[in-house]
């Protein structure tokens, strides 16, 4: 947490107005192990993290997105994100909706499925949505957030390669970036992906955090090392893409009923 506070203050000095931390920002990625007791990593909302970042947001007039492992009042545990507005007001919590259960990503052993729906936050600087990691593979989530008014989709993330595993699928990182750029284009929104980096246990997180505009053009991209990106966005470009290509205007919801059938 102390290290993250220093990084946030550096970002503020470099002109950041909306700051997004990586998924589970202040713990190791414990879901790579099956069915362990991880309660010691959990915290409440409000709690230690939110108290610290509320003060920073208020002090510097910035919006901060804080992803963490939440112990909720109902006694359940969630992979969560909170948004703190520039006046230090703690906005509604988002619970990760899509929770994977795969080798080295045993998240259903630890997190309940998100139960609060998709949220769009009207912050001081922009209308934003926060989706978490595995959510980024689902076009429905991006579309719903867009229809609810989001101009920027933030994806705090912890994704990487399994050490010594050679996948027959192809380039995982390339697919990860491509699908999110596709969400940007299809919805006319800016996308910000903030990924963990470095080796933890059997996982090598590839970093590669990036920002793209509403037509999928990469505005900035990090490498496979710890890095802070400061990116200026022209959100009026969203309207240009939406109007010019008609992706939202020409939708046919009457043909989409299959989407809500199991």
Give descriptors for this structure.
single chain, 262 residues, alpha+beta, Nitrilase/N-carbamoyl-D-aminoacid amidohydrolase, 6-stranded mixed β-sheet, 4-stranded mixed β-sheet, 5 helices, 13 strands, 23% helix
Q: How would you characterize this protein structure?
A:
It contains 5 helices and 13 strands. It has one domain: Carbon-nitrogen hydrolase (Nitrilase/N-carbamoyl-D-aminoacid amidohydrolase, 4-Layer Sandwich), CATH 3.60.110. Helix content is 23%, strand content 23%. The relative contact order is 0.12. Strands 5-6-7-9-12-13 form a 6-stranded mixed beta sheet, with helices on one face. A 4-stranded mixed beta sheet has the order 1-2-3-4. Strands 8-11-10 form a 3-stranded antiparallel beta sheet, with no helix packed on it. The chain is of the alpha+beta class and 262 residues long.
């Amino acid at each position: 947490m102390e290290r993250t506070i220093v990084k946030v203050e550096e970002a503020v000095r470099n002109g950041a107005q909306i700051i997004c931390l990586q998924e589970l920002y202040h713990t190791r990625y414990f879901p790579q192990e099956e069915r362990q007791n991880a309660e010691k990593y959990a915290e409440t909302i409000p709690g230690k993290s939110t108290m610290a970042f509320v003060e920073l947001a208020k002090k510097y007039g910035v919006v901060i997105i804080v992803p963490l492992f939440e112990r909720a009042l109902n006694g359940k545990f969630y992979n969560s994100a909170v948004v703190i507005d520039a006046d230090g007001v703690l906005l509604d919590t988002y619970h990760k909706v899509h929770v994977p259960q795969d080798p080295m990503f045993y998240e259903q052993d630890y997190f309940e499925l998100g139960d609060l729906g998709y949220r769009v936050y009207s912050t001081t600087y922009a209308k934003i949505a926060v989706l978490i990691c595995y959510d980024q593979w689902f076009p429905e989530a991006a579309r719903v957030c867009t229809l609810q008014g989001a101009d920027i989709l933030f994806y705090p993330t912890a994704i990487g390669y399994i050490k010594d595993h050679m996948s027959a699928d192809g380039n995982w990182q390339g697919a990860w970036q491509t699908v999110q750029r596709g969400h940007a284009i299809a919805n006319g929104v800016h996308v910000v992906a903030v990924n963990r980096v470095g080796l933890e246990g059997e996982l090598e997180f590839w970093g590669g955090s990036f920002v793209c505009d509403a037509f999928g053009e990469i505005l900035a991209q990090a490498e496979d090392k710890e890095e802070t990106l400061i990116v200026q966005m022209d959100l009026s470009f969203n309207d240009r893409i939406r109007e010019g290509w008609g992706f939202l205007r020409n939708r046919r919801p009457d043909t989409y009923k299959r989407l809500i059938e199991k």
